[in-house]
Specification:
Layout (H helix, E strand, L loop, with lengths): L65 E6 L3 H14 L6 E6 L2 H8 L8 E4 L8 H10 L6 E3 L4 H9 L8 H5 L4 H8 L2
Parallel strand pairs: 1-2, 1-3, 3-4
Length: 189
Amino acid sequence: MYKNCGTHPKIHRICSGCSDLDNEYGCPKCDYCIKCGGLDLPFSEGAPNPKGFTVNHVNRIHFPDKMLLIVEDDLFQQKRFLDWALTLFDPQGRVRVACVSNAVEAWAILQVKEIRPFAIILDHDLQWGSGSELLALMHEHLIKIPVITASGIPANNQRMYGAGAEYVYIKDQVIAGMADEIVLKLADI
């Protein structure tokens, strides 16, 4: 279990981690902080939380505190990316992977600073928006997140590079593991 964070006010309720009564910052038995799971996470006390969601460390070995965003419109290709991610990250580890199918959904995620991804793997041809349009919007709003291109069409990847993507790969190269070293470095785990 995680050490308690030592920053939250006195809490007295039953620990969801081991069912013991909590002490000042968490459970005396497992040293688990009810508020943040032992980590300083976005939705812990004092941080913006637009909908009032609680942060729970439930049924996880590690609390995921990093996100990789995959923007890919084809469901089969999303599955391929998720299969690849399972070879790279611990399924119960610190990285969570989100797949969205268009630039509109990706932009919605980027609006919430507390959950912004550490990197984006970006296809170009999408039903709503394109990879280049998303990059232009990110640039316009000063959102600096590393982007790895992942179109199956090399010319599209060059367009995205011209629009601000830092790393140029075709989809099959990313899935084959050729960008693994970069992704792990960006994840900083």
